[in-house]
Protein backbone atom coordinates (compact mmCIF):
# COMPACT_ATOMS: atom_id res chain seq x y z
CA UNK A 1 0.00 0.00 0.00
CA UNK A 2 1.42 3.39 -0.98
CA UNK A 3 1.51 6.40 1.34
CA UNK A 4 -1.23 8.04 -0.73
CA UNK A 5 -3.48 4.98 -0.40
CA UNK A 6 -2.83 4.74 3.33
CA UNK A 7 -3.68 8.37 4.09
CA UNK A 8 -6.55 8.41 1.59
CA UNK A 9 -8.07 5.47 3.46
CA UNK A 10 -7.47 7.18 6.82
CA UNK A 11 -9.34 10.27 5.57
CA UNK A 12 -12.25 8.25 4.18
CA UNK A 13 -12.46 6.13 7.34
CA UNK A 14 -12.25 9.23 9.55
CA UNK A 15 -15.34 10.85 8.06
CA UNK A 16 -17.31 7.58 7.87
CA UNK A 17 -16.40 6.22 11.32
CA UNK A 18 -19.74 5.40 12.93
CA UNK A 19 -18.20 5.52 16.43
CA UNK A 20 -17.10 9.12 15.81
CA UNK A 21 -20.41 10.08 14.27
CA UNK A 22 -20.15 13.82 14.89
CA UNK A 23 -18.84 14.41 11.35
CA UNK A 24 -21.59 12.25 9.85
CA UNK A 25 -24.20 14.23 11.79
CA UNK A 26 -22.74 17.49 10.58
CA UNK A 27 -22.71 16.41 6.93
CA UNK A 28 -26.30 15.17 7.30
CA UNK A 29 -27.31 18.49 8.87
CA UNK A 30 -25.70 20.35 5.97
CA UNK A 31 -27.62 18.27 3.40
CA UNK A 32 -31.03 18.03 5.06
CA UNK A 33 -32.46 21.16 3.43
CA UNK A 34 -31.48 20.16 -0.11
CA UNK A 35 -33.17 17.89 -2.64
CA UNK A 36 -31.43 15.50 -5.04
CA UNK A 37 -31.92 17.97 -7.91
CA UNK A 38 -29.73 20.43 -5.95
CA UNK A 39 -26.74 18.07 -5.96
CA UNK A 40 -24.36 20.74 -7.29
CA UNK A 41 -25.10 22.98 -4.31
CA UNK A 42 -24.53 20.05 -1.95
CA UNK A 43 -21.22 19.19 -3.62
CA UNK A 44 -20.04 22.80 -3.20
CA UNK A 45 -21.23 22.72 0.41
CA UNK A 46 -19.30 19.58 1.41
CA UNK A 47 -16.25 20.80 -0.53
CA UNK A 48 -16.35 24.07 1.46
CA UNK A 49 -16.44 21.96 4.63
CA UNK A 50 -13.45 19.94 3.39
CA UNK A 51 -11.48 23.12 2.61
CA UNK A 52 -12.04 24.44 6.13
CA UNK A 53 -11.26 21.04 7.64
CA UNK A 54 -8.09 20.75 5.53
CA UNK A 55 -6.83 24.19 6.45
CA UNK A 56 -6.87 23.65 10.21
CA UNK A 57 -5.53 20.10 9.85
CA UNK A 58 -2.56 21.54 7.96
CA UNK A 59 -2.02 24.44 10.37
CA UNK A 60 -1.91 22.19 13.44
CA UNK A 61 0.05 19.41 11.76
CA UNK A 62 2.68 21.88 10.56
CA UNK A 63 2.90 23.37 14.11
CA UNK A 64 1.59 26.77 13.02
CA UNK A 65 -1.20 26.80 15.63
CA UNK A 66 -2.00 24.86 18.81
CA UNK A 67 -5.45 23.84 20.02
CA UNK A 68 -7.19 23.12 23.29
CA UNK A 69 -8.80 19.73 22.69
CA UNK A 70 -11.51 20.19 25.35
CA UNK A 71 -12.73 23.43 23.75
CA UNK A 72 -12.73 21.90 20.27
CA UNK A 73 -14.61 18.79 21.42
CA UNK A 74 -17.30 21.11 22.80
CA UNK A 75 -17.40 23.36 19.73
CA UNK A 76 -17.93 20.48 17.27
CA UNK A 77 -21.42 19.61 18.58
CA UNK A 78 -22.15 23.35 18.84
CA UNK A 79 -21.60 23.61 15.07
CA UNK A 80 -23.95 20.66 14.53
CA UNK A 81 -26.60 22.25 16.76
CA UNK A 82 -26.37 25.64 15.02
CA UNK A 83 -26.66 24.00 11.60
CA UNK A 84 -29.67 21.91 12.64
CA UNK A 85 -31.42 24.89 14.24
CA UNK A 86 -30.74 26.93 11.12
CA UNK A 87 -32.44 24.21 9.07
CA UNK A 88 -35.51 24.32 11.33
CA UNK A 89 -35.67 28.09 11.01
CA UNK A 90 -35.43 27.90 7.20
CA UNK A 91 -37.78 24.94 6.67
CA UNK A 92 -40.64 27.09 5.36
CA UNK A 93 -38.46 29.22 3.12
CA UNK A 94 -37.53 28.38 -0.44
CA UNK A 95 -33.82 28.77 -0.93
CA UNK A 96 -32.39 31.44 -3.12
CA UNK A 97 -28.82 32.35 -4.03
CA UNK A 98 -28.08 34.42 -0.91
CA UNK A 99 -29.14 31.64 1.48
CA UNK A 100 -26.93 29.17 -0.39
CA UNK A 101 -23.91 31.48 -0.12
CA UNK A 102 -24.52 31.81 3.62
CA UNK A 103 -24.60 28.02 3.95
CA UNK A 104 -21.29 27.75 2.06
CA UNK A 105 -19.68 30.24 4.44
CA UNK A 106 -20.90 28.36 7.51
CA UNK A 107 -19.76 25.02 6.05
CA UNK A 108 -16.29 26.49 5.48
CA UNK A 109 -16.13 28.14 8.91
CA UNK A 110 -17.45 25.11 10.78
CA UNK A 111 -15.04 22.94 8.78
CA UNK A 112 -12.22 24.87 10.44
CA UNK A 113 -13.50 23.75 13.84
CA UNK A 114 -14.03 20.13 12.79
CA UNK A 115 -10.51 20.00 11.36
CA UNK A 116 -9.12 20.94 14.76
CA UNK A 117 -10.89 17.93 16.27
CA UNK A 118 -8.76 15.41 14.41
CA UNK A 119 -5.58 17.44 14.00
CA UNK A 120 -3.70 16.31 17.13
CA UNK A 121 -4.25 12.64 16.27
CA UNK A 122 -3.15 13.18 12.67
CA UNK A 123 -0.12 15.16 13.85
CA UNK A 124 0.96 12.28 16.11
CA UNK A 125 0.34 9.82 13.29
CA UNK A 126 2.45 11.76 10.81
CA UNK A 127 5.28 12.33 13.26
CA UNK A 128 8.38 13.76 11.59
CA UNK A 129 7.70 12.33 8.15
CA UNK A 130 9.09 14.47 5.36
CA UNK A 131 6.17 14.09 2.91
CA UNK A 132 3.65 15.72 5.21
CA UNK A 133 2.05 17.81 2.44
CA UNK A 134 1.45 14.74 0.25
CA UNK A 135 -0.02 12.85 3.19
CA UNK A 136 -2.30 15.75 4.13
CA UNK A 137 -3.46 15.95 0.52
CA UNK A 138 -4.21 12.20 0.39
CA UNK A 139 -6.03 12.38 3.73
CA UNK A 140 -8.21 15.25 2.55
CA UNK A 141 -9.03 13.59 -0.77
CA UNK A 142 -10.16 10.54 1.22
CA UNK A 143 -12.17 12.82 3.48
CA UNK A 144 -13.94 14.38 0.50
CA UNK A 145 -14.73 10.99 -1.04
CA UNK A 146 -16.14 9.79 2.30
CA UNK A 147 -18.32 12.87 2.58
CA UNK A 148 -19.66 12.40 -0.93
CA UNK A 149 -20.54 8.78 -0.07
CA UNK A 150 -22.39 9.93 3.07
CA UNK A 151 -24.26 12.54 1.03
CA UNK A 152 -25.23 9.98 -1.62
CA UNK A 153 -26.57 7.55 0.98
CA UNK A 154 -28.38 10.23 2.99
CA UNK A 155 -29.91 12.01 0.01
CA UNK A 156 -30.82 8.67 -1.55
CA UNK A 157 -32.77 7.74 1.58
CA UNK A 158 -34.47 11.15 1.55
CA UNK A 159 -35.42 10.76 -2.12
CA UNK A 160 -36.90 7.30 -1.52
CA UNK A 161 -38.93 8.55 1.46
CA UNK A 162 -40.20 11.56 -0.50
CA UNK A 163 -41.09 9.48 -3.57
CA UNK A 164 -42.66 6.40 -1.97
CA UNK A 165 -44.07 7.81 1.25
CA UNK A 166 -44.80 11.37 0.08
CA UNK A 167 -43.12 12.92 3.09
CA UNK A 168 -43.26 16.69 2.72
CA UNK A 169 -39.92 18.47 2.48
CA UNK A 170 -40.89 20.71 5.40
CA UNK A 171 -41.65 17.69 7.62
CA UNK A 172 -38.42 15.93 6.58
CA UNK A 173 -36.34 18.99 7.47
CA UNK A 174 -38.11 19.41 10.82
CA UNK A 175 -37.84 15.73 11.83
CA UNK A 176 -34.22 15.16 10.78
CA UNK A 177 -32.93 18.52 12.02
CA UNK A 178 -34.70 18.13 15.37
CA UNK A 179 -33.18 14.68 15.86
CA UNK A 180 -29.71 15.95 14.93
CA UNK A 181 -30.11 18.96 17.26
CA UNK A 182 -31.07 16.64 20.12
CA UNK A 183 -28.04 14.43 19.55
CA UNK A 184 -25.80 17.51 19.34
CA UNK A 185 -27.06 18.73 22.72
CA UNK A 186 -26.28 15.32 24.22
CA UNK A 187 -22.77 15.43 22.73
CA UNK A 188 -22.25 18.91 24.22
CA UNK A 189 -23.31 17.67 27.66
CA UNK A 190 -20.97 14.66 27.41
CA UNK A 191 -17.86 16.70 26.66
CA UNK A 192 -15.29 17.32 29.35
CA UNK A 193 -15.54 21.06 28.74
CA UNK A 194 -17.76 21.51 31.79
From TrEMBL:
Transmembrane segments: 20-37, 42-60, 66-85, 105-125, 145-165, 172-189
Keyword tags: Membrane, Transmembrane, Transmembrane helix
Record carries keyword Transmembrane: yes
Domain of life according to the entry: Bacteria
Name of protein: HupE / UreJ protein
